[in-house]
From TrEMBL:
Name assigned to this protein: UPF0042 nucleotide-binding protein
Keyword Acetylation on entry: no
UniProt domain RapZ-like N-terminal: residue ranges: 1-154
Keyword entries, A-Z: ATP-binding, GTP-binding, Nucleotide-binding
């Protein structure tokens, strides 16, 4: 029996996750009052494996009923049943953007500022997040990537470190990404922009990749960067960090940063952590100011 409690910040993707779990054969219940969880769990565990995968969404919509969650979970443990908590998270900037795009109001600030409701909700849910088995930050995840994460954890049973690494290439002339934890300026690397045959290309194309990655500066930089990340990533995981966003910036975000971001993605892939790469400015014009 797998009994999963799905919770987290409003707008972080709980509705999407419940759809994925239904596709994976879970029996899903949305917004069950927490006080009813022990009885519901008892019924499920006595079903003789007819209901062997259960997912419940519990969130701020329950209002004051949410205070019953911890006593209910303690009752489940005393009854000899096991459960997991999946907590979904996202940055303030991403949540505000999602709310504005959907034209919805936050449940804790229906007539006030979105940010006030988001901050209040974070405070209320902090104790639940601290008890979560899995924390997924959906800020930079596409729907496909989120589905892969859910499949990895609840279907394939792969180990989950809790750290999702997002690598973002960008152009400084378009501004730095707001949510980066680490930013590396690679404008010191020889620029293919000044080679006429490469000016209109991008770092995805082999000619540019070879030019950028085979320079002495890049070879030394990548060695030092990988050494640093080898040290940092396990310590971030130990500290409980759920997402690491690495920005790689050059002037326009088309050549050097793209090639290096892809190379970093390849070097980090294949470990237990999930790795995502995004090229924010690759399609923008390559004119220099």
């Amino acid at each position: 029996m797998r009994f999963v409690i799905i919770t987290g910040i409003s707008g972080a993707g709980k509705s999407q996750v419940i759809k994925y779990l239904e596709d994976f054969g879970f029996f899903c219940v949305d917004n069950l009052p927490p006080a009813l969880i022990p009885k519901f769990a008892e019924i499920c565990f006595q079903s003789n494996d007819k209901m062997d995968r259960i997912a419940l969404v519990i969130d701020i919509r329950g209002g004051e009923l949410l205070r019953d969650l911890f006593p209910a979970l303690d009752d489940i443990k005393r009854g000899g049943f096991s459960y997991e908590i999946l907590f979904l998270e996202a940055s303030d900037e991403v949540l505000i953007k999602r709310y504005k795009e959907s034209r919805r109001s936050h449940p804790l600030s229906p007539e006030g500022r979105l940010i006030n409701g988001i901050r209040q909700e974070r405070g209320i849910l902090k104790p639940i997040k601290e008890r979560a088995n899995h924390i997924i930050d959906t800020s930079n995840l596409s729907t496909r990537q989120l589905k892969e994460e859910i499949s990895n954890i609840f279907v394939e049973g792969k180990s989950f470190s809790g750290l999702i690494i997002s690598i973002i290439s960008f152009g400084f002339k378009y501004g730095m990404p707001m949510d980066c934890d680490l930013v590396f300026d690679v404008r010191f690397i020889p620029n293919p922009y000044y080679i006429p045959s490469m000016k209109s290309l991008t770092g995805k194309q082999q000619t540019v990749r070879d030019y950028v990655l085979n320079s002495n500066e890049t070879i030394e930089f990548m060695g030092k960067l990988n050494d640093m990340l080898e040290f940092l990533i396990p310590n971030y995981i130990k500290e409980g960090k759920s997402q690491l966003v690495i920005g790689i910036g050059c002037t326009g975000g088309r050549h050097r940063s793209v090639a290096i971001a892809d190379e970093l993605y390849k070097s980090l892939l294949g470990r237990e952590n999930s790795v995502i790469v995004e090229h924010r400015d690759i399609e923008k014009d390559n004119r220099r100011h």
